Amino acid sequence: MGHAADATAADMDAAIAAARTAFDTTTWSTDHPFRARCLRQLRDALQGHIEELRDITIAEVGAPTMLTSGPQLEGPIADLGWFADLAENYTWRTDLGDAAPMGMPTSRYTQREAAGVVGAITPWNFPHQINFAKIGPALAAGCTVVLKPAPDTPWCAAVVGAIAARETDIPPGVLNVITSTDHELGAQLSTDPRVDIVSFTGSTDTGRKVMASAAASLKKVFLELGGKSAFIVLDDADLASACAMAGISVSIHAGQGCAITTRLLVPRERHDEAVAAVRDTMSGIVPDDPRRAGTMCGPLISARQRDRVQSYIDLAVSEGGTVEVGGGRPAGKDRGFFIEPTLITGLDNTSRVAQEEIFGPVLVVIPHDGDDDAIRIANESAYGLSGMVYGTDPDRIQHVVDGVRTGTMGVNGGVWYSADVPFGGYKASGIGREMGVAGFEEYLEIKSVATPHVLTRIAFPPTDRGDHAVTQQRFDDKVVIVTGAAGGIGEVYARRLAGEGARVVVADVADEPGEKVAADIGGTYVHCDVSDPDSAQALAAAAVEEHGRVDGLVNNAAIYGGMKLDFLITVPWDYYKKFMGVNLDGALNVTRAVYPHMPRGSAIVNQSSTAAWLYSGFYGLAKVGINGLTQQLATELGGQGIRVNAIAPGPTDTEATKSTTPGDMVKDMVAKLPLSRMGTPDDMAGALLFLLSDDAAWITGQILNVDGGQIIRS
Question: Which of 70, 226, 379, 471 has the most C-beta neighbours closer than 10 Å?
Answer without folding.
Answer: 226
